[in-house]
Specification:
By secondary structure, the protein is an alpha/beta fold. It has 2 domains: 259 residues, Type I PLP-dependent aspartate aminotransferase-like (Major domain) (Aspartate Aminotransferase, domain 2); 139 residues, Alpha-Beta Complex (Aspartate Aminotransferase, domain 1). It has 19 helices and 17 strands. Helix 8 runs parallel beside helix 9, helix 14 runs parallel beside helix 18 and helix 18 packs antiparallel against helix 19. The protein binds pyridoxal-5'-phosphate. Pyridoxal-5'-phosphate (PLP) binds next to helix 5. The site of pyridoxal-5'-phosphate (PLP) has 13 residues, from helix 5. Keywords: Amino-acid biosynthesis, Cytoplasm, Methyltransferase, One-carbon metabolism, Pyridoxal phosphate, Transferase. Its EC number is 2.1.2.1. It catalyses: (6R)-5,10-methylene-5,6,7,8-tetrahydrofolate + glycine + H2O = (6S)-5,6,7,8-tetrahydrofolate + L-serine. One of its GO terms (molecular function) is glycine hydroxymethyltransferase activity.
Length: 479
């Protein structure tokens, strides 16, 4: 155990003892969560384990300070320490990703995307309108001018990857505000290969002429060529926005470089900080100098006061991501995903796109005669935590699904290697081959309906326990 972990271990024990004096149920739930995370094989592609210094930075009095505004321009007095925090976070983000500008205030990925969308609208629609009218800001507009501008906001178009191809709901999906504020169309993947079809994206862009072309995904197991996306955006005059929430760690760790690195190609790049980047829950927006002034108005455009303690934790995580150790980690994440994919393929399972070249493996469980929901539950009964996910043109829809999405970032943080991931594939196939769907009339109402052959779940659970014991989470942390 490192000295840092040792010191923080006793600090956490003391903190939770103090919390227990105020509300024991919260102290208990916090301790129980550690036990659960230690004892489960976490393959959820969007989750990770932040370092103890990152976790510790979240729990401080920086949380108590209001600091609406930007560095050096706050609407509250006494923000000098928050200025330092935000400055350091932005500096690390710029230097790590090579971006011209970074904004560390968004509280989450969804907030980062909302900030980006409105910043693009402000830059592309509002600013030219103000310039035409010779005005400085919207408060100087007459009611009529304001109504004209509001109508223009509502006329704008966006294209993004469809949800069943692996896109995120903030990329124009109707139930999300992105699908309500923009006229929206989506691009899918090639029906044969499951791969992104750049010609189809270009054809859609030519026909629909979007203001915003969104690239990025939550469940697509391949890399994207952002130079090609840039060409498409340029041809139709669209702003290229890349949401790298899922693969930011692979960009930070220089696994994705050249055309696969979105930062040199996109106008605006958004991310979460808690997935493959292994930081605290939060969002980040990066942009070119051209878009920077609009992004900088995220507060009050769509955000309230920044969460200073979270920006501090982002700064610590970004500092970690600038190390050689993190580069090795990121490469291991990608290598482990390949080992996991190969483990499934050699045992006859079908993977969407036939493999992976990022951190995600998308397993099609229909070949086992199961829905994603049944597979997810049977795996959970065996100690394997995954999430069900649609596959392209999913016959089972978004609730039951036909897929299971798997990711390697979390277990790689625990030190799992390629052999461990091959073993995980073996164990998962054992569960899925020994799970039978149960017809609706005999299953329990409201539950996924399936049965697992006797002894399989217990056998797999003890095999996963062995793997977990060999790679302890936060070793030495005793609560
Ligand atoms: N963008 C992508 C691509 C995501 O996968 C996610 C989360 O799953 C988000 C945005 C939203 O992030 P958050 O949950 O922090 O709002």
């Amino acid at each position: 155990m490192s000295e840092t972990n040792q010191n923080l271990s006793s600090a956490y024990k003391t903190i939770l003892d103090e919390v227990a004096k105020v509300e024991p149920r919260i102290a208990d739930a916090t301790r129980a969560e550690l036990t659960d995370q230690r004892g489960s094989l976490k393959l959820i592609a969007s989750e990770n384990y932040a370092s103890l210094p990152v976790l510790a930075t979240m729990g401080t009095w920086l949380s108590d300070k209001y600091a609406e505004g930007t560095v050096g321009h706050r609407f509250y007095a006494g923000c000098q320490n928050v200025d330092t925090v935000e400055d350091v976070a932005a500096e690390h983000a710029r230097e790590l990703f090579g971006s011209e500008y970074a904004y560390a205030q968004p509280h989450s990925g969804i907030d980062a995307n909302l900030t980006a969308f409105w910043a693009i609208l402000a830059h592309r629609i509002e600013q030219p309108e103000l310039a035409d009218l010779g005005l400085k800001n919207v408060n100087q507009m007459t009611e009529e001018q304001w109504e004209t501008l509001r109508r223009k906001f509502g006329e704008q178009r966006l294209i993004g990857m469809s949800l069943d191809a692996g896109g995120h709901l903030t990329h124009g999906f109707r139930p999300n505000i992105s699908g309500k504020m923009f006229h929206q169309r989506s691009y899918g993947t090639d029906p044969e290969t499951g791969l992104l079809d750049y010609d189809a994206v270009a054809a859609l862009a030519r026909e629909f002429k979007p203001l915003v072309l969104v690239a990025g995904y939550s469940a697509y197991p391949r890399r994207i060529n952002f130079a090609k996306m840039r060409e498409i955006a340029d041809e139709v005059g669209a702003t290229l926005m890349v949401d790298m929430a899922h693969f930011a760690g692979l960009v930070a760790g220089k696994v994705f470089t050249g055309d696969e690195d979105p930062v040199p190609h996109a106008d605006v790049v958004t991310t979460t900080t808690h997935k493959s980047l292994r930081g605290p829950r939060g969002g980040l927006v990066m942009a070119t100098e051209e878009y920077a002034p609009s992004v900088d108005r995220g507060c009050p455009l769509v955000l309230g006061g920044p969460l200073s303690h979270m920006m501090a934790a982002k700064a610590v995580a970004l500092a970690e991501a600038r190390t050689e150790t993190f580069r090795t980690y990121a490469q291991n994440v990608a290598d482990n995903a390949k080992a996991l994919a190969e483990g499934f393929l050699k045992r006859g399972a079908r993977l969407v796109t036939g493999g992976t070249d990022n951190h995600i493996v998308l397993l099609d469980v229909s070949g086992f005669g199961l829905t994603g929901r049944q597979a997810e539950s049977a795996l959970l009964d065996s100690g394997v935590v995954t999430n069900r996910n649609s596959i392209p043109n999913d016959p089972n829809g978004a609730w039951y699904t036909s897929g299971i999405r798997l990711g390697t970032p979390a277990l790689t943080s625990r030190g799992f290697g390629a052999d461990d991931f091959d073993r995980i594939a073996e164990l998962m196939v054992e569960v899925l081959q020994n799970t039978e769907p149960v017809t609706a009339s005999t299953g329990k109402p409201g539950k996924a309906k399936y049965t697992i052959a006797d002894g399989v779940a217990d056998r797999v659970q003890s095999a996963t326990d062995e793997l977990l014991d060999a790679h302890p989470l936060y070793p030495g942390l005793e609560l």
